[in-house]
Design a protein that fits this description.
Structural class: alpha+beta
Number of domains: 1
Shape: globular
Order of helices and strands: EHEHEEEHEHHHEEEHHEHE
Number of strands: 11
Strand content: 25-35%
Number of helices: 9
Length: about 240
Amino acid sequence: MITTTITARERLTEPDIRAMFALHRRYFAGTCNERFRHDLAEKDWVITLHDTAALAGFSTQKLITLADRPEVRFLFSGDTIVDRPYWNQPGLAGGWGHLAMKLAAEREGCGNLYWFLICKGFRTYRFLPTFFRHYYPRPGNADDAVAFNPILDTVAAARYGSAYNPARGVIRSSGTGDRLADGWTDIAPHHATDPHIAYFLAANPGWRDGDELACLAPITRDNLNPLGHRVIRTTGVAWNVD
């Protein structure tokens, strides 16, 4: 039985964390347990996908507020991995949608909420056109660039400092961080013809070395496309946050 759970980070158990790291290092090279735990410790929630008792995927989440832009908040997605047999399961994406819509409802009338997503690979970037009407960057994005680029530059520079290159919209790898492991960077023929994947590959040519494309999407019900609404509606979640 496949289940989706949203857990407050402090409620994770030691076996939970060990299972997450084991899955993480299966798909990423250059990682280490100490850095993984340090990154996890700053997060607010973890969305998990389980098949019975086995961990099938997870995504770490943090709500970011900037001192100079208090009216804007960002739901930041950190480490995100789904085990290969479950790539067609929508549970993790649906769980993220439930968390995002809950935060959006709490923020209604209090300022804007955005998804701040950094993409090491094209599969992660592909979530944006699959679920959202408007997001940045994307092909033919002149209008969205005017609206979103200053906001994206602000949050990316605040979080990553000089590692963020605003001219390219890319967070440059230091060479000591995570990168997709060999075997998970292959581009299948059908991927090569996808315009969104082609855009990602052109925008982030250093992705195989661990460079990450910084992305932004407004989190509102109106900005979800029909598939996004359907995935959230058909995904049941358990909350482990109180």
